[in-house]
């Protein structure tokens, strides 16, 4: 492995790429440093291809070592365990960025490992990881020859910022991540606060130009001789026999509108033809016959759209499948909706919890809490497959994150709505765009739950089929169009603008005009879906579900937090036991009181409010006798605030013994006579009686 060290400058920040110093037994390896953030990326592949598979066996693992931030892992074992969701999401970004650029017939096991070795809390690890992956691949013997790069675009105070720092990202209304080559975009991931299509295009153009400059620098890096990824060579006679009858059958199959009928027709035909051909060509593998047939089907499905201007299910290019929306589908959930679009169906529920239900995130940047959770489930039965539910898949995590980003933009501020919000999307049927169905169903369920969101959010998946200068942009793609197309472009947003965007490109030559057309077409589709949703429920419900906890929020002085909690939590436990309410306290003094019983919540709120009230001279209070002494009695007039009723102030008559006038636990009406310099409160029952 040849040693080299190069600097790449991007918007005034230097990325230092170093190769040939560490991990030299990998096919390719490098470290990428920006500031004090260091990422090691390695690329390794097997020497021989896998036999009998029709996909590229690529694995990408992005991991963060806690020592990178000077931390020791939590938990019993004190070591890094399974990857966190945030690590899986970065792994997917790397995978989606590079996968389209491998040779079509590359079948060797390939693994990318990106390990964060140092983290300064300022600079992105995602950007360094993608750039490092490109360098590791192009300097290896793996047949990956086109450099790629990645850039993040933010917008702070109306101005675009290239690769904003973590601090700048906090005030940015756009988070756009773009990967690509010097000629084409390969991956886009974005979240925004309802920005327009024009503004998004402007940001994408800035990202493309920045990516191009980074790719140009990489072309000068040294490269090894590449392993050949040879295309399969088929028996000419076998191929001729297949073409003779399969072309007509494929043309017939791609026009069958129903998914199950279409798949059954083609599957049965493949089985029948394969059986007949293996009798004639016993030396040929069945996989070769299958590959030839799938190539034919692929070509005919694309020709149907490009040349005959017809979609498989008969829809127009901008036509959206039939939509039904049903809210309140589940009787006990705090909010729910059943959203169906064609043969894709999402059952989405909303659960409202207390601040104590927030998810605790232990990341390199430190511990934080998230009040908004969205979990996406894709069971096997949704596509008719007998597949058991085990651990959450990377795909489920990715789709859930996309839907979460789309909906987060419209959530109320925490100070206005203190609930923790959990959305669960269960996909009951799937034929394309289940993540966008989750967005639509999630918006409907939030409305049904009574969450005061800013606006409804809808999402639509766009597709592209392109041959040369001939192309068609498709709205609301189904599964087959996603598989056979050149682009999967998901756009979600409100009628005011885009809230989330995700794009994966399989080809080069995606022009500005095509992007503009796709975004404009997606906007029309989004508006159509929003109108359908509006007819089902046009505004958030005025009341929460009877099964949802009631919540009151108030703020107390920070110096009163300890008083509310009490020694060892004594006071707050006593309050919760007495009222049945749950009390959560933030460091800034914000108090969240929640419970199913509204009376208990209000009672707890009254107690907490009383902590901020100071005893006033001359004011009359209802007090409770807490202690009897020889010289008088102590009474609690406010929670935690006691005063002394001297024996001479117990009655207008002479009192020989305190016990003759009051007992512990008695409720008495007292007047505050004075508060001395030491803060001691003097009370009087006599003064109250004299004033009557």
TrEMBL record:
Mg(2+) binds at residues 482, 488. InterPro entries: ExoRNase_PH_dom1, ExoRNase_PH_dom2, ExoRNase_PH_dom2_sf, KH_dom, KH_dom_type_1, KH_dom_type_1_sf, NA-bd_OB-fold, PNPase. It is an enzyme of class 2 (transferase). Its cofactor is Mg(2+). GO terms for cellular component: cytosol. Its main location: cytoplasm. Keywords: Cytoplasm, Magnesium, Metal-binding, Nucleotidyltransferase, RNA-binding, Transferase. SMART domains: KH (SM00322), S1 (SM00316). Pfam families: KH_1, PNPase, RNase_PH, RNase_PH_C, S1. It comes from the Bacteria. Residues 618-686 form the S1 motif domain. It is found in: Cytoplasm. It catalyses: RNA(n+1) + phosphate = RNA(n) + a ribonucleoside 5'-diphosphate. Its EC number is 2.7.7.8. GO terms for molecular function: 3'-5'-RNA exonuclease activity; magnesium ion binding; polyribonucleotide nucleotidyltransferase activity; RNA binding. PANTHER family: POLYRIBONUCLEOTIDE NUCLEOTIDYLTRANSFERASE (PTHR11252), POLYRIBONUCLEOTIDE NUCLEOTIDYLTRANSFERASE 1, MITOCHONDRIAL (PTHR11252:SF0). Involved in mRNA degradation. Catalyzes the phosphorolysis of single-stranded polyribonucleotides processively in the 3'- to 5'-direction. Belongs to the polyribonucleotide nucleotidyltransferase family. HAMAP family: PNPase. This is Polyribonucleotide nucleotidyltransferase. It comes from Endomicrobium proavitum.
């Amino acid at each position: 492995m040849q040693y080299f060290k190069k600097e790449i400058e991007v918007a005034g920040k230097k990325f230092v790429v170093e190769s040939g110093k560490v991990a030299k037994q990998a096919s390719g390896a490098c470290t990428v440093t920006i500031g004090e953030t260091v990422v090691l990326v390695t690329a390794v592949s097997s020497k021989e291809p896998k036999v009998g598979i029709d996909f590229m066996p690529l694995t990408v693992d992005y991991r963060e070592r806690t020592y990178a931030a000077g931390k020791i892992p939590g938990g019993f074992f004190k070591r890094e365990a399974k990857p966190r969701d945030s690590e899986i999401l970065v792994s997917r970004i790397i995978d989606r960025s590079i996968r389209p650029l491998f040779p079509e017939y590359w079948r060797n096991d390939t693994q990318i490992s990106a390990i964060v070795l140092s983290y300064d809390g300022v600079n992105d690890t995602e950007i360094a990881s993608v750039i490092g992956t490109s360098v590791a691949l192009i300097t290896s013997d793996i047949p990956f020859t086109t450099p790629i790069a990645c850039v993040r675009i933010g917008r702070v105070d109306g101005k675009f910022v290239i690769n904003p720092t973590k601090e700048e990202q906090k005030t940015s209304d756009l988070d756009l991540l773009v990967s690509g080559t010097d000629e084409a975009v390969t991956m886009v991931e974005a979240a925004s606060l309802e920005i327009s299509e024009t503004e998004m295009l402007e940001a994408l153009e800035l990202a493309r130009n920045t990516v191009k400059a980074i790719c140009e620098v990489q072309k000068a890096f040294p490269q090894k001789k590449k392993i050949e990824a040879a295309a399969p060579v088929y028996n000419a006679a076998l191929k001729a026999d297949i073409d003779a009858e399969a072309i007509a059958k494929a043309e017939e199959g791609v026009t069958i509108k129903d998914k199950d009928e279409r798949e059954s027709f083609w599957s049965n035909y493949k089985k029948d033809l394969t059986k007949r051909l293996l009798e004639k060509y016993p030396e040929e593998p069945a996989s070769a016959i299958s590959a030839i047939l799938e190539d034919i089907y692929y070509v005919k499905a694309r020709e149907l759209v490009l040349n005959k201007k017809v979609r498989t299910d008969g829809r127009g290019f901008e036509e959206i499948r039939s939509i039904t929306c049903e809210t309140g589908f589940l009787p006990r959930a705090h909010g729910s909706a059943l959203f169906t679009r064609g043969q894709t169906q999402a059952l989405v529920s909303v659960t409202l919890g207390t601040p104590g239900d927030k998810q605790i995130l232990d990341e390199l940047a430190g511990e934080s809490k998230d009040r908004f959770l969205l979990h996406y489930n894709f069971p096997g039965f949704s596509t008719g497959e007998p597949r058991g539910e085990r651990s959450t898949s990377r795909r489920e995590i990715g789709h859930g994150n996309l839907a979460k980003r789309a909906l987060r933009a419209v959530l109320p501020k925490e100070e206005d709505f203190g609930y923790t919000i959990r959305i669960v999307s269960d996909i009951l049927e799937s034929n394309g765009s289940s993540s966008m169905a989750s967005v639509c169903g999630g918006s409907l369920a939030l409305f049904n739950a009574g969450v005061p969101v800013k606006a409804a959010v809808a999402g639509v998946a766009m597709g592209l089929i392109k041959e040369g200068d001939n192309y068609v942009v498709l709205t609301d793609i189904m599964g087959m169009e996603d598989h056979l197309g050149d682009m999967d472009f998901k756009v979600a947003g409100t009628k005011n603008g885009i809230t989330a965007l995700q794009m994966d490109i399989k080809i080069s030559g995606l022009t500005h005009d095509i992007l503009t057309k796709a975004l404009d077409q997606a906007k029309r589709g989004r508006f159509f879906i929003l109108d359908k949703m509006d007819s089902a429920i046009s505004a958030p419900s005025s009341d929460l579900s009877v099964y949802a906890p009631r919540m009151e929020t108030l703020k107390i002085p920070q110096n009163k937090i300890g008083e509310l909690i009490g020694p060892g939590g004594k006071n707050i436990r006593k309050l919760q036991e007495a009222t049945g309410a749950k009390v959560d306290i933030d460091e800034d003094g914000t108090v969240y009181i929640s419970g199913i019983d509204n009376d208990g919540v209000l009672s707890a709120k009254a107690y907490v409010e009383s902590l901020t009230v100071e005893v006033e001279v001359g004011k009359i209070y209802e007090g409770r006798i807490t202690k009897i002494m020889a010289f008088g009695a102590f009474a609690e007039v406010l929670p935690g605030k006691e005063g002394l009723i001297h024996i001479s102030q117990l009655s207008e008559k002479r009192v020989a013994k305190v016990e003759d006038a009051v007992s512990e636990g008695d409720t008495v009406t007292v007047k505050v006579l004075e508060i001395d310099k030491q803060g001691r409160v003097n009370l009087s029952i006599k003064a109250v009686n004299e004033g009557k």
